[in-house]
């Protein structure tokens, strides 16, 4: 990679784009709404159940001009979701300012494990045990989405819920491969702890990206 490309990436004017697509948000507080997804490559959080492990190696995803990504998004959507991989591995100040300048709402889905950047209309925090969020992520979270893979994850979810701000919406989401086993447990848990809501990966049920 040449020095100019490295400098543009450092400024956030290029990003290692894995994919971009217009679809229906399948998870969390904005389930069922149309959005343009920008998936950025690179992640070292290492969730063993991750369903986009092909995103982990940023070197596999070509540096793409951020202005072109913004232009593509504007053709389709009013809301843009920046995800990964782990998007906060990269500077997101430039892309969010450009998106908002064009009248688009900016959402992020992140583990919160890297330095905060970007200007966000909605900040979805999904903490992982392998690499915990930084303090700023807890402060900024509009939505806490906890993935439930086993019974111990309920305790972890409560630990994380204690760290977010009082206005943050709380969601429990079954890990897809364990959904048949975990959904009944999540239903019981939410009924006994009604501060939580259930999030399902509805896009998978609908067979859309």
UniProtKB/TrEMBL annotation:
SUPFAM superfamilies: Radical SAM enzymes (SSF102114). It comes from Tenacibaculum jejuense. This is 7-carboxy-7-deazaguanine synthase. Residues 30-209 form the Radical SAM core domain. GO terms for biological process: tRNA queuosine(34) biosynthetic process. It comes from the Bacteria. Belongs to the radical SAM superfamily. 7-carboxy-7-deazaguanine synthase family. Catalyzes the complex heterocyclic radical-mediated conversion of 6-carboxy-5,6,7,8-tetrahydropterin (CPH4) to 7-carboxy-7-deazaguanine (CDG), a step common to the biosynthetic pathways of all 7-deazapurine-containing compounds. S-adenosyl-L-methionine binds at residues 49-51, 85, 126-128. It catalyses: 6-carboxy-5,6,7,8-tetrahydropterin + H(+) = 7-carboxy-7-carbaguanine + NH4(+). Its cofactor is S-adenosyl-L-methionine; Mg(2+); [4Fe-4S] cluster.
């Amino acid at each position: 990679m040449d020095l100019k490309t490295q400098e543009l990436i450092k400024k956030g004017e290029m990003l290692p784009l894995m994919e971009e697509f217009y679809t229906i948000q399948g998870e969390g507080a904005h389930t069922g709404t149309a959005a343009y997804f920008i998936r950025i490559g690179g992640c070292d959080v290492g969730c063993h159940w991750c369903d986009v492990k092909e995103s982990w190696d940023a070197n596999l995803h070509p540096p793409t001009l951020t202005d072109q990504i913004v232009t593509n998004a504007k053709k389709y959507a009013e809301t843009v979701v920046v995800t990964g991989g782990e998007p906060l591995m990269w500077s997101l100040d430039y892309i969010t300012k450009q998106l908002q300048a064009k009248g688009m709402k900016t959402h992020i889905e992140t583990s919160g494990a890297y330095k905060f950047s970007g200007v966000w209309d909605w900040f979805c925090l999904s903490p992982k045990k392998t690499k915990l969020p930084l303090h700023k992520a807890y402060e900024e979270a509009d939505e806490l989405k906890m993935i439930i893979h086993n019974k111990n994850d309920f305790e972890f979810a409560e630990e994380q819920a204690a760290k977010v701000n009082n206005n943050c919406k709380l969601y429990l989401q079954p890990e897809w491969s364990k959904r048949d086993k975990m959904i009944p447990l999540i239903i019981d848990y939410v009924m006994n702890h009604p501060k939580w809501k259930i999030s399902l990966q509805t896009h998978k049920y609908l067979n859309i990206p």
